Amino acid sequence: MSLVQPVDNVAMLPAYLAAGTAVLVLLFDLLVARPAVTVAMAALGAAGTAAGAALVGAAGERRTFCVGDDCSWVWGGRAALVGAVIALLTLGVLALSGPLLRAGRTPVGEYCFLLACAMTGGVVLGAAGDLITLIVALETLTLPLYVLVGLRRDSLAGAEAAVTFFVVSVVATTVTLLGAALLYAVTGTLHLDRLGATLAARADLTDLPLTGVAVALVVAGLAFKVAAVPFHAWAPATYDGAPLPVAAYLSTASKLGGVVALLAVVQRALPGDLTGPVLAALAVLTMTVGNLVALRQRRTVRLLAWSSVAQAGYILAPLGALALSAGRTGDARAAAYAAAVAYAIFFVLLELAAFAAVVALRPADGDGGTLADLSGAARRHPWVGGAFALALIGLAGLPPGLAGLFAKVTVVRALLAGHAGWLALVVALNAVIGLAYYLRVTASLYATPAGAAAVRPARTVVLALGVATAAAVVIGFAPQIVLDVAAR
Amino acid sequence: MTFGQVLLVAVVAVPALGALATAVVPGDRAGRVVGTVAAAVTLLSALPLVGGDHGWFGYGPRPAVQPWHQLDLPWVPGLDLRFHLGVDGISWPLVVLTALLTLLCCAYTLWRVPPGGGSGRALVALLLVVEVGILGTFLALDLVLFFLFFEVVLLPMYAIIAGWGGADRRRAARKFALYTLFGSVLLLVGVYVVVAAAGTADLVALTGGAGLSRGTQLAAFTLLAIAFAVKSPLWPLHSWLPDAHTQAPTVGSVILAGVLLKMGTYGLIRIAVGVAPEGARWAAPVLGVLAVAAILIGGLVCLAQDDLKRLIAYSSVGHMGFVLLGVATLTATGIQAALIGNIAHGVITGLLFFLAGAVKDRAHTGSLAELSGLRETAPRLAGLLGFAAVASLGLPGLAGFWGEAFAVVAAVQRGGPLWLTLAGLAALGGALTAAYFLRLLRRVTHGRPSPAVAGLAPGLAGAELTAWAPLVLLALAVGLAPALVLSYASGPVEALLGVVP
What we know:
heterodimer; A: about 500 residues; mainly alpha; 2 strands; B: about 500 residues; two-stranded antiparallel sheet; about 75% helix
C-alpha cells in the first residue's frame, strides 16, 4: 500500500475556489487597499465558488481521501447544492453589507476575508464524509462569525453578542467532539457511512449505554448550531447585537450549515431509533417555543430571530418523524430527508429576502430597531415594503408567498407519508401561531405613516432584495425545481 | 384546447390578470374601471360553461364526478399537485354567483370607495384576487389545488377588512385570519392524509372513498369537516363571523357572506362527503346536532341584537345551519336543499348587506335603537329592506324558502327519533328567523323617524340600483323557479350519493 494518497483535485475544486477567495481578498486588501476592489474580489470569488460547486456536482459524484470504501470527501448532488447555496448566500450578504462597510466603523478587508472563510467552511461541510471533517468544517463556518458579530468598533452590543455566541458555540463544539470521540471508542471508526453500517449490523453496540450517550452528545452539540430549543438561548441576543448583514448570515448560511451537519449525521451515521424520538421532541419544542416567544417580541431582529428558531423546528420535524417510525422503507426515508433539505432552501431564500428588506428600510449602519420604526414603511417605499411583506407572508406559509406555502406542504406531506400524523398536526397548528406575528409586522408596514423621513436604500441592497424576491416568486410557481435538487 | 377548457382557464386567469392590471394602471378611477371590466369578462366567461356535455354516454360504471369541461395539466409532481380544473352542476351555480357578486361589488366601488384606508383601486384589485381564490376553489378537481385556492382567499380578505373596515377592524381582521388559517391547516393535514393513503389527489378518482380504509376515512372526514366548519361557519366555530362581517366594508361583507362562506359548505359536499363517505355516514348525527344548534343559537342571538350589520351576520349562522343540516342528512333532498340554500343565502344576504351598508352610510349609525321610521323618509330603501328581510326569513315564492323547507323535509325523510327531533327543532328555528326579521323591520322601517333617519333623502343612486337590481331579480327568479339551480345539480348529486354507503 502506497503511503502517498492520490487526491482528486477536481473534486476539491470548490473548496480551492472558496479558500482562494479568502486568500485573494486578504492580498488585495493589503496590496490595492481600495475597499471597492476588495468587496468586488470577494463577490467575484463567491460567484465563482457557486459556479464551481454546481459544475463539479453536475458531472457526477466524485470521491477522494478514501480508505478502502470510506471516503472523507464526497462531492455529490447534496454537496453541490449546499456549496452553491452557501456561496450564493455569501454573495447576497456581501451585497447587504454595502451600507455597513461604507459607514466606516467596520474594517472592509477583515470583514470580507472572514466572510470568505466562513464560506469555505460551508462549502467543505456539504462534502464531509467523516465526523472530524464535518466538525472542523462546521467550526470553520462559525469561527469567523464570532469575530464578525463583534467587528464593529465602539459597539458594546456587538461585543456582548460576540462573547455570548463564542462561549455557547465553543461549548457546543466540545460537546459534539466528545460525542464523536465516544462513538469512535464504541465502533472504532469515524466515517459516517461506516458508522451507520457498523451500528446497524451490530445490535449489541446500539444497546450499550455509551452509544446512547455518544449519540445524545453529537445531536445536542449540533442542535446548538441550528438554535433548536432548548439550545437556542444564544440566538436572539446574538442576532440583535450583530450588524444586520451578519445577522442575516447567521440565520441563513450558518443555520443551513447546522442543518446540513445534523442531516449528514442522522441520515448516514446514527441509528434512527435512537435519534428519532430526540429529534421529534426537539422539533416540537423548537417550533412551539419559537413561535410563542416571537409573539411577544417588539424588536424587529429579535422577532426574526425567534421566528427562525421556530422555522428550524419545521426543518427538524421530518428528521424526527421518519426515525420515530422504525422500519421505514428507503423511499420514505429519502423523501423525509429531501423534505428537510427543500424546506431549508425555501426558508433561507425567504429569510435572506426579509433581512435584505430590513437592511433597506433602516438607516445605514443602524440596527434592526423596533417594529414601531417600520410602521408605514411600505407606504414610503412601496416596492421594498411589498417585497418585505411577501417574504414575511412566505415565512408564514400563505399565498401569495407560494414558496413558503409549498415549503410547509412539503413538510406536512413528508410527515404524513411517514405516518407521523400527530407531528403534522403540531406543524400545522404552529403555522397558525406563526401567522399571528408575521401578520402583525406586515400590517404595521402598511399602517399610516408615522412621519419619519424616507431613507434611500442602497443600490446593492435593493439588488439583493430584488434577486431574492424574484427567485422566491419563481420557485413559488415552480417548486419542483427545489424538490428535484433537494432529492439528489 | 377545447372552447370549454379556454373558458375554465379564463375564469381563473381573467380576474388574476385584472387584479394586476388594476394595480399598475395609472390613476385611481382608471384602475377601478379596468377591474370592473375584468370582473364583467369573468362573468361572461363563467356563463357559457353551462354548455357542456351533461350526459353520461360511456361504458362501465358511472363515475361519481362527471365534469362538463375539464382541464388536467401537471404542475408539481413531487407534491401530487396537478392543475386540474372542471365544472359540473354542483359548482356551476356557485361559480356564476361568485362572478356576479364580484362584478356588482366592483361596480359599486366605482361609485363609492369606503373611507378609512387606501385607494379604491387597491380595494378592487383585492376583490379580484379574492375572486380568483373562490372561483379556483369551486373549480378545482385536485385536492391539493383545492387547498391552494382555499388559502389564496385568506390574506386579501384580511386586507379588505383591515384596510377599509369599521372602527374595530384590526382585531376583527386578525381574528378572521387566524380562525380561517386554523381551518385551512387542518384542511392541509386532511388532504395529505387522503393523498398519502390513496396515492392520488385526483378528485374524480377519489370520490367514493377510492378504497380508503375506514380508519383513514374517519380521520380524514374529522379533519376536513372541522376545516370546513370553521369556514361555513358551524357553531361553535363561528365566533369570527359576526366581528368580521360587522367591521368589513359593505363590499367585503357582501363577498364574505355571499360566497366566501360557501367555500365551506361546497367543500363539505364535494370533498369531505365525496372523499370520505364512510366518515360522513359516521359523523352525520354529530353534524346534524351542531347544525340545529347553530340554527337555534343564531336565531336567539339575533333576537337580542341591537346592531343592523351584526344581526344580519348572526342570521348567516342560522342560515348556514340549515345548509349544513341538509348536508348532514346525506339524502338527495337534503343535498339539493343545501345547494339551493347556498345560492339563496348568497343572493339574499348579499343584498341585505348592501342595504345595511346603504342605511349605515346615510344615517351614520347601525344601532337599531337609533333607527326607526325609515319608510317615512326613504320609502324605497325601506321597501327593499323589507323585501330582502322577507326573502331571508323564507317566505314561499322567494329564494330563501326552498333551502330551509327542504332541509327540514330531508331530516323528516331520514326518519328515526334523532332526525325527527332535529327536524322539529329546525322548524322552530325557522319560526325564530321570522320573529327576528319582523322585529328588525318593526324597529327600522316602522314608527316615527328618529333624528338619525329624519334628514334622509328619499332617492337611491343609480349605482345602488344597478348593484341591487340583479340580486332582487335573482331572489325572485330562484324563488319562483328553483329548477334554475336544481336541474343542473340533480344528476351530480345522485351520482355523489350513489357512492355514500
